Amino acid sequence: MLLCDNEVDRDFERFSVSTLRELSELFVGATGICDHDWRSENQVARIYRTELVTEKGKTTSCGEAYVYLKGFAYMLRTEANAELIAQIEGGIKRETSVGCSVAQSICSICGAEIGTCSHEKGKVYGGERCCAVLTGAVDAYEWSFVAVPAQRSAGVIKSFIESEAGRGYAAEFAALEKSAQLGRKYLDSLRAEVLRLCLVCDEKMHPALEKSVQLMEEPELIKLKDAFEEASAKLYPPVTQLPGRGEVTAFSGEEYII
After folding, report:
1. Are residues 191 and 68 in the same domain?
2. Which of 12, 97, 175, 182 could form a disulfide with 146 if both were Cys (CB 3.0 to 4.6 A apart)?
C-alpha cells in the first residue's frame, strides 16, 4: 500500500523525503480505518511493516526523485469484514489517506513558515507553484480508506497473496482459511448448544443470551455450557423406569409425557 509520497498533493502540500523517513517508523503498528472515523469499532487493519521506496527514472513536479512510503498491512478474514475484503480485492476500495502531524509547514518559495509570508499555496511565483513542504514528523495517528485522497497516488498497491513474496504462502494461506472456517463452525455449534441448554434451564434468559453468546469465545462458552448442564441435571434428575428388588412402583405414565 502506498501511504504517502513527496509529490505535491491536491491541497498543494508535500512531504519532504526526511519526513517520509521519519513517518516510516511512526506508521508501524498504526491502525487502518475508514473515512478517518476514529471509533474503535471502525478499525479494520493494521500496518506491520513499512518501506521507503525510490522509484527509478521518475521525478516529482518539483524535480525531485520520486519517493514514497510503502506500508504492509494485515486484516483478519471474518464475516464482519467479508464485504470490505471483497471490495479491496475487486479494486473498489483502493484509495487511502494518512492521518499524521508534522512540526512545520515550510513555504517552498521563501522557506518561511507557511502563512507567515506573502506567498499563497497553489499560486505561481516566478514560474514556480507555491506549496507547503511538510517537515518534522511528530506523530502518525492512522491511515484510512477514503473516496478521494489528498495524495493522488495513495492507495492499495496489491494484496499480499498477489505479491511475489506472498505467492509462496498461497497453499499455507488456503489451509489456514480452511481451518478458520472449521473453527467458526465449531463456535457456531457451541453457541447453539449453549442456547439450547438455556431454554432447558430458564426460558426467560434466552432472549437476552441470544445476542450475548455471539460475542463470546470458546472459554466463556464452555464455562456457560458446563454451568447449564449442571443446572439442568439438578432440575431434571434421571428417573429409573424399573423398581429396585423388593420394591413396587406405581406407574402413571407421567414419566413419558413431554
Report:
1. no
2. 97
Residue with cell 518534522: 136
pLDDT tens-digit profile, the chain (258 residues): 788 899 998 889 999 999 999 999 999 998 888 878 877 777 888 899 999 999 888 999 888 999 999 988 888 888 877 887 777 777 777 788 888 899 999 999 999 999 999 999 999 999 999 999 999 999 998 888 887 777 777 766 555 555 555 555 566 666 767 777 888 888 889 999 999 999 988 888 888 888 888 888 888 899 999 999 999 888 888 766 665 566 655 656 665 565
CA gyration radius, the chain: 30
On whether both 225 and 100 belong to a single domain, the answer is: no
Q: Which domain holds residue 199?
A: 170-236
Backbone φ, ψ for residue 207 (5° rounding): -60, -40
Whose CA is closest to 97, among 33, 43, 161? 33
| DSSP for 133-162, written as a single string | EEEEEEEEEEEEE-SS-SSTT-B----TTT
Cα separation, 176 vs 178, whole angstroms = 5
Number of domains present in the structure of the chain: 2
Considering the domain architecture, whether residues 148 and 30 belong to the same structural domain is answered as: yes
